[in-house]
Amino acid sequence: MDKRYQVFVSSTFADLQDERKKVQQAIMELDCIPVGMELFPAIDEEQFDFIKKVIDDSDYYLLIIGGRYGTLSSTGVSYTELEYRYAISKGIKVIAFLHKDPDSLPLSRSEGEASAREKLAAFRQEVSGNRLVQFWATADQLPGLTLASLIRTMKTYPAVGWVRGDQTVNPSIYKEMDDLRKENQQLKDKLSDGSAKGVMDFENMAGLDDEIELIGYGHDKDGELFSPARRWKANVTWRDIFKSVSPKCVGLLSENEIDSIVAGNVYCVSDIKSDGLTSNYLDEKTLHTIRAQFRVLGLFKMKATSLGVFLWSLTPKGEAEMLNSLVARKKD
Question: Where is the DUF4062 domain (predicted)?
Fold first, then answer.
């Protein structure tokens, strides 16, 4: 039975149209159904009652916060915040993406009045204080964040979903489908592992215990406002990088999450670790080198989606290496 989840995409509208399109494309990439402001771009009190019904019918709620607080309701609270509060009250799982540097946005995409900026800061604080959030800087980062966050949320918190009315359920089919899926995955893993061993053999290639200098960037955090990015560097081994990522890569991880995990861990041993930077991320060339190295070593396989986002997963060789590094051993 083909089940699809409905995802309500909430944000201010006029300033985040490109971001919304990219998020919605990523949602459709996972065979889910995106719904949101496109159905009712001009909102008022009467339409908000209809919006609540749409949220009721949704399995997940995805919130994008940029530099605008949004249109105010009669209570002085933005409709975006009202949507968020309603989803929370209904127990719907929330995925939240906050712009990491709202002060860098142009005036047309930010709030000019101090009262609106204060409400936006308070809203950001409320959202980030109740759950783990992801930070974004450009629209191109959102598809990867969406894929990774939605995959993880669907796996951890499976919802009711939607099915076609003419579909019938035959329980005996499930086991056969699952067996075929497992067999197919095993064949893919063998091909992937064999390709890594047989083709990708480069002279003088660095191993897991060799060092690499990583370059990254982070922000000084002052409340909810982020300063311009500052550059840092750190020397670590490939094994250090692998050990930081592999335990979290049981399923699929987007390259955005790989970036965040590695940068967050490596910054702690960087040349300016005492400065307490936050929202760290890797230099683009550094990230590409990491991707290539682990692929050549046969530890990860990468799948590029139609949106150009790389999804990482462990190969059988990578899983064995991860387990070997984590398993408890007898004491002498």
Answer: 6-87
- The residue among 115, 135, 156 that closes a domain is 156
Q: What is the rounded distance in angstroms from the CA atom of residue 294 to the CA atom of residue 316?
A: 13
Cα 265 to the center of its chain, rounded Å: 17
Contact call for residues 43 and 51 (beta carbons, < 8 A): yes
The pLDDT, as a whole number, for residue 202 is 72
The verdict on residue 195 lying in a domain is no
CA distance 328 to 325: 9
Residue 152 lies in a domain: yes
Supply the mean pLDDT for the chain: 85
Question: For the purposes of burial, counting CB atoms within 10 Å of the CB of 89, is it exposed (0-12), middle (13-18) or buried (19 or more)?
Answer: exposed
Domain end point (choices 121, 156, 191): 156
User: Model-level pTM?
Assistant: 0.61
In a domain, 199, yes or no: no
CATH of the domain at 92: 3.40.50.10140
44-48 mean pLDDT: 74
The model's pLDDT over 150-201, given as tens digits with 9 standing for 90+, comes to 988 988 888 888 876 665 555 555 566 667 777 776 776 665 554 444 445 6
Number of domains in the chain: 2
* Among 263, 242, 255, CA closest to 315: 242
